[in-house]
Amino acid sequence: MSKTHEQGANGTVVQRRQKIKRPADCQVVLFNDDYTTKDFVVWLLVALFQKKETEAVVLMETVHKQGSAVVGTYAPDIAHSLRNVAVETARKNNFPLRIEVRQA
Length: 104
What we know:
It is a single chain. The protein is an alpha+beta fold. It is 39% helix and 30% strand. It is built from three helices and five strands; from the N terminus they run βββααβαβ. The strands form two sheets. Strands 4-3-5 form a three-stranded antiparallel sheet. A two-stranded antiparallel sheet has the order 1-2. A hairpin with a 5-residue loop joins β1 (2-7) and β2. α1 (38-47) crosses α2. The mean pLDDT is 91.
């Protein structure tokens, strides 16, 4: 909470608390493509997004069959950081993986 100070009618200082809104959470969405391997996607979900192997396989299959899937919901700065690291890691491994961050 943030504090503000105001001058009261008789010269006293009144301290008021303001609520600070937390930014809305963001979803990290992974998209299917014809080049990124299923093994790489599972590895990325386990290594970067801290998914258990079984959950990572289910997410990968959802992406493969439906075209996309939400792989996690995070605070905005964390969502963007995860997306950037995932894309950078994919590019280093010559994969065109597409990941977006959307407001939840």
